[in-house]
Design brief:
Cyclic Phosphodiesterase, Chain: A, alpha+beta, 238 residues, 20% strand, 3-stranded antiparallel sheet
């Protein structure tokens, strides 16, 4: 696939292979396919109206079904899409075996996500490589975006990571997660419990089989504030 010529921002994600069961389940949960760009019917819940689920998944729907490896960034002035594509290829080529993750639905802060049951050193090494090797293509983070990242409160280490890599939750602070909802603040406890139970049921096949991290994916945000779309997938060498 040809590199996207004029995207506003780029990101390195893990995303299941489009068309796979893991891709379809996550895309349907969020209500949008990031490859086709088309809306999808979401799961039906007997104890939650469809508009409520649509509202709760609005924030992650924009980004598509994914786990972040390098957070969205604009290209540096001396870098082009072809250079970024080559950097993606270099990262993927260095990984020789897929990484299998056992996952579960859990609440992180105020949102639900699909998360690993245990830490994977190989996965952390992959995320570190994405951050380091793609960073040469990234423009400096604007002060306004730095300020937004600080709103939730950062540790001294996270402040250092933000300034160095443009994102505070990398390296030792990286936490793999595939976001299922936006903020659940204000939702009744009974509704939170029901939503989590439904997510566990919906993602039961993924929880049973595990996730195969066998590629990194390039997603693009075509215009500021727009949806992110799948651009290209870089499978690991085997």
């Amino acid at each position: 696939m040809n590199p996207h010529p004029s995207a506003h921002r780029h990101a390195a994600y893990f995303a299941p292979e489009p068309g796979s069961l893991a891709w379809d389940l996550g895309s349907q949960w969020l209500g949008r396919c990031a490859r086709s760009g088309l809306p999808l019917p979401q799961p039906t819940m007997v104890d939650m109206e469809p508009p409520t689920l649509a509202r709760l998944t609005q924030a992650p729907r924009r980004y598509g079904w994914h786990a972040t490896l390098k957070a969205p960034f604009a290209l540096a002035g001396n870098a082009g899409p072809a250079q970024l594509q080559a950097a993606f290829m270099q990262v993927a080529a260095a990984v020789t075996h897929p990484i299998t993750l056992e996952v579960e639905v859990a609440q992180i802060g105020d949102f639900l996500a699909l998360v690993p049951l245990r830490r994977s050193p190989a996965l952390h090494a992959l995320a570190d490589a994405c951050v380091r090797q793609l960073h040469a293509c990234a423009a400096p983070l604007p002060p306004s975006e730095q300020a937004r990242r600080r709103q939730g409160g950062l540790s001294l280490r996270q402040e250092h990571l933000l300034l160095q890599w443009g994102y505070p939750y990398v390296m030792e602070d990286f936490q793999f997660h595939m976001t299922l909802t936006g903020s659940l603040d204000g939702l009744l406890d009974s509704h939170r419990t029901a939503l989590a139970a439904h997510a566990r049921q919906w993602f039961a096949p993924v929880r049973a089989r595990g996730l195969q991290i066998d590629a990194i994916s390039w997603f693009v945000e075509s215009k500021a504030g727009g949806d992110f779309h799948w651009q290209e997938r870089f499978a690991f060498e085997s």
